[in-house]
Amino acid sequence: MTTPLPTIAIRELTKNEPVPYDLLVMADPSRELVDEYLPDSTCFVALQTEELTGIIVLFPLSKTSAEIKNVAVKPEFRNRGIGSLLIDHAVKVAREKGYSTICIGTANSSTGQLYLYQKLGFGLTEIRRDFFTRNYTDPIFEHGIRAEHMLVLTREL
Ligand code: ACO
């Protein structure tokens, strides 16, 4: 990973700003599912000067646990630390809001994401079997592996 860009700022996306669906569907191809969790979520965006480079969506799963439902960085800005900055920001906000855990789910086929989340202190806690085969009409393949199950990783706060 190269050094994070010094000009990256993270701020909350206000409810009257347009939702950057183009970014959100990179992490979650189901617009229907995105629209289900978005109203109750808080979104944070990463900006380099005026350009929106990434987004993260924090959802209140229970009184004690928050979930990162979506994290995405524009392809041309990846591998510069922006995804890690967004996840660290969500962890900080969840801690400040008094949650005791934060979790993030990804597919069994998402090897790079599984690596990144574990590097950032998340550990495997649950497998939601057949989540992707049940909830997504088109099959999803990554690295020749079918996305079938959701692996949930959790970090204590
Ligand atoms: N393939 C390979 N490596 C990956 C991948 C991947 N898909 N995703 C992350 N990594 C690894 C990189 O190898 C790199 O490792 P290093 O730091 O040891 O060099 C590190 O993760 C990159 O870290 P950052 O630069 O902090 O992250 P980045 O800004 O690239 O953002 C993100 C990571 C958000 C996963 C980005 O790759 C992306 O937008 N991917 C497409 C959308 C996506 O898959 N989102 C997550 C879905 S799960 C969910 O949303 C809850």
What does this structure look like?
Strands 1-2-3-4-5-9-6 form a 7-stranded mixed beta sheet, sandwiched between helices. It has a two-stranded antiparallel sheet with strand order 7-8. It is globular, with a radius of gyration of 15 Å. The protein starts with 7 loop residues before the first strand and ends with a strand. Helices cover 27% and strands 35% of the residues. The protein contains 5 helices and 9 strands; from the N terminus they run βααβββαβαβαβββ. The longest helix has 15 residues, at 82-96. Bound molecules: acetyl coenzyme *A (ACO). Residues 1, 26-27, 68, 70-73, 78-84, 104-106, 112-113, 115-116 line the site of acetyl coenzyme *A.
Mean of residue pLDDT? 95
- Total helices: the number is 5
- What compounds sit in this structure? acetyl coenzyme *A
* Oligomer kind: single chain
Low-confidence stretches: none
The count of β-strands is: 9
Distance between the termini: 25 Å
* Strand adjacency order, main sheet: 1-2-3-4-5-9-6
> What would the principal axes of the Cα set say about the shape?
globular
What class, by secondary structure content? Answer: alpha+beta
Order of helices and strands: EHHEEEHEHEHEEE
Bin the strand percentage: 35-45%
Largest sheet report: 7 strands, mixed
- In which range does the helix fraction lie? 25-40%
The radius of gyration is: 15 Å
List the helices and strands and how they pair.
Elements lengths: L7 E5 L8 H7 L3 H7 L4 E7 L2 E10 L4 E9 L8 H15 L4 E7 L3 H9 L3 E6 L2 H5 L5 E2 L2 E2 L3 E7 L1
Write a concise synopsis of the structure shown:
With 157 residues, the chain is an alpha+beta fold. It has helices spanning 21-27, 31-37, 82-96, 111-119, 131-135, and strands at 8-12, 42-48, 51-60, 65-73, 101-107, 123-128, 141-142, 145-146, 150-156. Acetyl coenzyme *A (ACO) binds next to α1, β4, α3, β5 and α4.
